[in-house]
Amino acid sequence: TPEKKQSEPSRGRKRKADTQSESSQGKSIGGRGHKISDYFEYQGGNGSSPVRGVPPAIRSPQNSHSAPSSVRQNSPSPTSLAFGDHPLTQPKQLSIKITQTDLTMLKLAALESNKNQDLEKKEGRIDDLLRANCDLRRQIDEQQKLLEKYKERLNKCISMSKKLLIEKSTQEKLASREKSMQDRLRLGHFTTVRHGASFTEQWTDGFAFQNLVKQQEWVNQQREDIERQRKLLAKRKPPTTNNSQAPSANSEPKQRKNKAVNGAENDPFVRPNLPQLLTLAEYHEQEEIFKLRLGHLKKEEAEIQAELERLERVRNLHIRELKRINNEDNSQFKDHPTLNERYLLLHLLGRGGFSEVYKAFDLYEQRYAAVKIHQLNKSWRDEKKENYHKHACREYRIHKELDHPRIVKLYDYFSLDTDTFCTVLEYCEGNDLDFYLKQHKLMSEKEARSIVMQIVNALRYLNEIKPPIIHYDLKPANILLVDGTACGEIKITDFGLSKIMDDDSYGVDGMDLTSQGAGTYW
């Protein structure tokens, strides 16, 4: 500090200028106090920062104001220079002290060797990492090439799967059409009949039904003949033993009566002879023959009726297949398109009012699915289209959240254009309960109990979730039989009229329906 510098005795010669400068500094210090620059005089006295200050003796000899060229150790050489009336103190030079350390050349060499070893280790580590990086890059390139190869192979497999599925579907379509053409002659077909100014389709039975009708007519004719012969046989029935033991007095009026019947002398009419009476054995023999013939005819009639019912069931399938083929031929999706670059359409399953259901194959998940294509009428107003689309989106949102083994799963939803959108559902091989009941007419109590238990289980799930869901269109046509039989599993489908029971729309008096229309009843 400046105080220590003033009290520090000078070992060298003092000049007059030093005394004057010290006295001037003392006056200034005594009068106005120390300046902040006085504490940094050892750096040049210019008030600069101690970090940036560099001793003039070290910086350069040109910047130094001291006269001597050599610097003495521990001996400052102050010089006072006056510019005008204000004397300035020359900054003191920094003293440098040489200190002897314990480092020797061996230690320095050891440190240097250690540093070199560390540097070599780091360089070796860097080389190893570079080699590992190169190996990883090479492996990444190999894996990338392998991935591209697998992608190409997968695309080939998908293309081959599509080709095989299309070939199989085409063969099935041809086989179904050939079978339908054969069944047209056997079971029947639709013919267009004109009624006035309009044309209607009328069903014409095939030769199988015609043959059965002829057999039924023959059986009825045979029965009528047998009944007529039985009546004639009853007239030739022999008298009983009680009548044969009657008194002879009564026999004379009968003989006279017979004579009168066979032709009296004065009777102008010729009367037919009475049938000759049979013996009791002959009567029982003919009676037994007629009973056997009636029993045989009854058996034949039952067989014909059973065959007729079987043909009616087959005819229902035939009519359904004819309608399906007709709808498929008129559909715009009949040529196996791939929707959303994922779902390959195979053949039509059914058609509703504004939708078509196709059996499809999911190329990503490698599974069969049912694609329901909703087509809006282009002549509808935009408001009606928006309303229909809103209901379909609500069905999608409701159905997507459901996860139960007795409810058909909804896989995906996408749009084809402004008037067409699709929903992808779980595919079931069997028919619905409505078709099963129409085909078989009845089912056992155990089968009915099993179906009701599964339906109640699904309805309980819909009631327990939050918020609860009401199906609103539960009927046999919306209950699918997984295996096509009544003794297997069932699944509930078609949530188009379902409703969420949220707190806003549910009240004490009931809940308003926002669904489009109402369901059809079986």
From TrEMBL:
Task: Locate the residues binding ATP.
Answer: 372
Biased composition (Basic and acidic residues) is annotated at 1-11
- Report if keyword Coiled coil is assigned: yes
> What InterPro entries is this protein classified in?
Kinase-like_dom_sf, Prot_kinase_dom, Protein_kinase_ATP_BS, Ser/Thr_kinase_AS
Keyword annotations for this protein, in alphabetical order, are: ATP-binding, Coiled coil, Kinase, Nucleotide-binding, Serine/threonine-protein kinase, Transferase
Its Gene Ontology cellular component terms are:
nucleus
**Where are stretches of biased composition, namely Polar residues?**
60-80, 239-252
Q: Which Pfam families match?
A: Pkinase (PF00069)
**Which biological process terms from the Gene Ontology are attached to this UniProt entry?**
chromosome segregation; intracellular signal transduction
Disordered: annotated segments: 1-87, 232-270
Q: Which residues form the Protein kinase domain?
A: 343-522
Q: Organism's domain of life? A: Eukaryota
Q: Which residues form a coiled coil?
A: 294-328
Gene Ontology MF terms in the entry = ATP binding; protein serine/threonine kinase activity
Identification of the protein by name: TLK1 kinase
**Organism field:** Chloropsis cyanopogon
